[in-house]
Specification:
Layout (H helix, E strand, L loop, with lengths): L10 E5 L2 E5 L2 E5 L9 E7 L9 E4 L3 E3 L11 H14 L7 E5 L6 E5 L16 E6 L10 H9 L1 H6 L12 E4 L7 E4 L8 E3 L2 E3 L2 H9 L3 H12 L1 E4 L5 E3 H6 L1 H4 L1 E6 L7 E4 L6 H14 L3 H4 L6 E3 L2
Length: 309
C-alpha cells in the first residue's frame, strides 16, 4: 500500500497488516459563546488548509421535547439549516452557513486559541453535528428608515416561518445598502421557528404546544391543510409558493450545505431527507401547519395572498 503521509490525516489505526486512515477536522475556537448555546467564534481547518472564513459554531446537547415528537438535539443543526433554506425560498437573506457532520462523533478536534480578553469554554467534540455560520460585520442604525420599511414588508414571510422576535432584537439583522441596488435586510440569526434551542437544550415553544392541543383532532388539521392549499403567496421577483406545498413537501426537498468532518476537503449540498427520518420530517411539517393556524386570518386582505387557480 503506497501512502503519501503529507496527504493523509493525523490519526492512523492499524489492524493487522491493513492501515485504516481517519480524516479529521480542526476547529480553532477563539472566543466564548455569544448566545446561550455552547459555541464560539472559530476558524475551521483541515490538516491541509483553512476551509472557512471567520465563523461562529454552535450546537445542542440535550433534548426536552414531548415524547410524541422524534426530534433530537444531535440533529438540531440540520433542522436550523433546513429552516434557513425555507427562509431563502421566501426571499429572506441569510449568511453563508454549513452543517458540520461528525460521524460517530470521532472526527472533530477543537483547538483553543482565545483572542485577547476572551475566556474560551471547552466544547464537546463528540456531537454528531454542529451549525457553522459566517460572521457578519453589523453596524447599522436600527431606526434607519429603509431598514424599518424592509422589515415591515418582510414580516409576512417571517410570520409564515414563525420567526417571532427578530424585529425586537436589532443584533439579529442589518441593512445592506449597496449603491445602485435595492437595499435588503440580512438576517444574522433567527434560529429555527419550529423548534427552539437555548442553553444547549432543544425544546418546542410552549405556545406551539398549546396550539397543538387545539388541532389534535385529525379533522381540524386536515381542514387547515385544505384551506392553506387553496392559497398562494407571492414572493418578490414574481416567485409564487402554495401555502400547503411549502409546509408539506418543501422541508424534505430542501438541500443544505454540509461539511463532512470525516472527509473535509469540500462543502457539498445534501437533501434533508437523506439526513432526517420521515417521522422527523412529518413532525417538522406538522409544526409548520400548527404555527400557521391563524395565518390567513392575520393577513386577510394582503394583496400578496391570492387563491390558487
Amino acid at each position: 500500500m503506497n501512502c503519501n503521509y503529507k496527504e493523509v490525516t493525523n490519526r492512523k489505526i492499524f489492524k493487522g497488516e491493513k492501515i485504516v486512515f481517519f480524516m479529521s477536522l480542526d476547529i480553532v475556537v477563539t472566543s466564548e459563546n455569544i448566545g446561550s448555546n455552547p459555541g464560539g467564534r472559530c476558524l475551521v481547518k483541515t490538516h491541509l488548509k483553512r476551509v472557512s472564513e471567520e465563523s461562529y459554531i454552535k450546537y445542542c446537547n440535550r433534548t426536552q421535547t414531548p415524547p410524541s415528537f422524534s426530534f433530537s438535539s444531535q440533529r438540531q443543526p440540520i433542522y436550523e439549516a433546513m429552516f434557513l433554506e425555507m427562509a431563502k425560498m421566501l426571499g429572506l437573506v441569510v449568511p453563508e452557513y454549513a452543517v458540520i457532520l461528525n460521524p460517530q462523533g470521532k472526527h472533530v478536534n477543537f483547538i483553543y486559541e482565545p483572542e485577547k480578553n476572551q475566556k474560551v469554554k471547552k466544547l464537546n467534540s463528540n456531537n454528531h453535528s454542529y451549525f457553522l455560520s459566517r460572521l457578519i460585520d453589523h453596524i447599522i442604525d436600527e431606526n434607519h428608515p429603509k431598514l424599518r420599511g424592509v422589515m415591515a414588508d418582510e414580516k409576512i414571510y417571517r410570520d409564515l416561518l414563525n420567526i417571532g422576535n427578530v424585529s425586537d432584537r436589532p443584533d439579529n439583522y442589518t441593512l445592506v445598502d449597496i449603491k445602485g441596488k435595492e437595499p435588503f435586510v440580512l438576517y444574522i440569526d433567527f434560529g429555527c421557528g419550529f423548534v427552539d434551542a437555548h442553553e444547549g437544550i432543544l425544546t418546542i415553544r410552549p405556545s406551539l404546544i398549546r396550539q397543538m392541543s387545539k388541532l389534535e383532532n385529525g379533522k381540524a388539521l386536515k381542514n387547515l391543510k385544505k384551506r392553506l392549499g387553496k392559497i398562494n403567496l407571492k414572493i418578490d421577483r414574481g416567485t409564487i409558493i402554495n401555502l400547503f406545498d411549502f409546509g408539506e413537501r418543501i422541508p424534505g426537498c430542501c438541500k443544505i450545505n454540509v461539511l463532512d468532518a470525516s472527509n473535509p476537503h469540500f462543502f457539498k449540498s445534501m437533501p434533508v431527507n437523506s439526513l432526517l427520518s420521515k417521522r422527523e420530517l412529518d413532525d417538522l411539517s406538522k409544526l409548520y401547519f400548527i404555527t400557521n393556524s391563524t395565518f390567513l386570518k392575520n393577513y386577510k386582505g394582503d394583496e400578496r395572498l391570492f387563491k390558487k387557480k
